[in-house]
Each structure stands twice: as C-alpha cells, then as structure tokens.
What we know:
The structure holds 2 protein chains of 2 kinds. Chain A is mainly α. Chain A has 3 helices and no strands.
Amino acid sequence: MSYLFASALLFALGVYGVLTRRTAILVFLSIELMLNAANLSLIGFARAHGLEGQVAALMVIAIAAAEVAVGLGLIVAIFRHRESTAVDDLSELRG
Amino acid sequence: MSPWEALALLLLLATGLLVVTLRNAIHAALALIANFLVLAGVYVALDARFLGFIQIIVYAGAIVVLFLFVIMLLFAAQGEVGFDPLVRSKPLAALLSLGVAGVLLSGLLGLKLAFSQDLQGGLPQALGPLLYGDWLLVLLAVGFLLMAATVVAVALVQPSRPLDALRPEERKEEVLR
C-alpha cells in the first residue's frame, strides 16, 4: 500500500516539474516521471488484482518509448528552426 | 513498513525531487536514471521481476540515453533559460501539485485491497500467455505504433536541403515538382 502512496507523490512531483520547467526537454523529463508513477501504481495494483496490471505496465513502457522518439524528434526539429526550445517562446503554432 | 521499503521510497522521492529541481539538464537526466534504477528495484520487490529488468534496459538504458544525447547535442546542459512570465509561479505550482497529491491520496485512502494474488514472481513465463492471449491485439497495435514512431522520428529530423545544395539532376526533379 505504501508504494501506491509513493506513486501518488511521484506523480505530483511530475506535475510540479511540468508546471515550473521552462525548457521543453525538462518538461519532457517530468512527463517521464509521471508515466513511471502511473506504472508503479499499475504494478502495485497488480498484487491485488492479478497479472493484467503488469502487462498494462509493459504496454505503457513500450508506448513511452514511441512517445520519446517522436517528442525528441520534434524538439530537435523545433530547435533547428527557432534556436530555442523554451516553452514560452513556442506559444504560437505558426512558423 | 520494513526499513528497506522505507529506504526505497525515500530514495524514490528524493531522486524525483532532484529531477524537477536541478538547474543543470544533464544532472536532472542523471537523477532520472537513479530514479529509474530504484524503481526497478521496487518492481522486483513487488513481484514484477521481468518488468524490473525491462525498466533497466528500456528506460534507464535506452530512453534516458536518448534524452542525454539530445541535451548534449542541443543545449550544452543549460536547463533554465528564458524569463519567468509569471512572477512567483513556483509556490503556486507547488500548491497545485500538492493539491493533485491530495486528490490522489484521498482516492487511495478509502481503498481496501487484499494483496493476495499469486503473481508467480512476474516472470516472462507468467506474462507470456497473457501477452499472446487476451492482449494480442494490444501487442500488435503497440508494435505498429512503434514502427510508425520510428518512421516519424526519422522523417522529422530530415534536414530540408536548400535547392542549390542539390545535385543538378536532382534539382531538375525538384523544380518539376
């Protein structure tokens, strides 16, 4: 049970990071933290409800890998275009 | 709660705090690796051995290394750039995230869970039949998603070459297009 509480606190830390960080890549790091908090609670609940939770956590890891590939590609492309990835500079979508 | 459990949770939260507060981007990524390693230990302790090792291989080994590559390529490790448009936004953000934590914890407090499932140690022998049984469609979808993500990542970082950098025969094609 204590792991579930730790997972909630880790998720809140990730929220704090997303709200305070000003560089896109550090926002991304905080998002990874939140994904892992969700994984920890999935695995914690798997002990009460069966192995499906662990399979779901495996899928979350695979999807996170895809997300990181696309996200970092976007960050590199934006950096080439704008010479910056500070999220406050990127508030408009047009080039 | 056993002392080992308390130590693991303390390390988990401490490294998580480092990830969101360190000013140097490389240090933050290294703290994230430490967080993932502790998390892998926690997974093994929670009867999810396969996932523990996957966590080390995929997260600490591949994903964070990708992060480190991009940080070193682009940022020269400067984490905090730009100005703060909202003055004193950090206490506000801390308050908001404490609120999120409060909501999640209040949801957990009412739960009555019986931790009595036999997970067979969370070994691949136990996960395999599920993965290729009930979850087969999800597995295929995730495989397709990974392939699409690879194609997108390669396509996104293709440099757009200016017209005069092309070879003559290529240029004719470009102009015709």
